[in-house]
Amino acid sequence: MFDERLPVHIDPLRMAETRRVLQGHVELADMVRLGESLMDHSGRVEVSLEFGIDEEGIRYMRGHLSTTVSLECQRCLDTMEFVIDNGFALGMVRNMTEAEALPSHYEPLQLDGKPLFLRDVIEDELLLALPIVARHAKQECGVKLDDADAPAETGREDRGKEEKDNPFSVLAGLKTDQKL
What we know:
This protein is of the alpha+beta class. It has helices at residues 12-17, 32-35, 96-100, 118-129, 151-154, 169-174; strands spanning 9-10, 21-27, 44-53, 59-72, 79-93, 107-110, 116-117.
């Protein structure tokens, strides 16, 4: 789909003024912070970026990211594939006052007058797209959970079990009320 690598550094204000569009890719292996969450660092992120100035005079960067990453399922500890296909809209600001004044459809992108390291912005958006807890769907997971065995998963409490199923029932017989 996209054949070119994206530039490393950009001047986002100038790109907004000239209404630039960038399309390309970034290698997953180049993203150190994201790599800490991945099981496999191969692959790349397809990126499409549009810079401009909206009708309110806000300079923006809108983008779309598409990739598949390998995460560790926190239920079975096997590798799982997670598809990221997200869009984002960033409003360029210089300070917190401008950030607070942004319309709700923009997230702030605070600029300090220096060239922007584009890969960091892409990596931030990918990190935000990751699930808080990576898990296979129940039917795909290597750990098969029964409704009775997984009260936390189903929200049901485990009731009605006989006393013999309690592993601590043996200790109840050893308990004495005698004081030494």
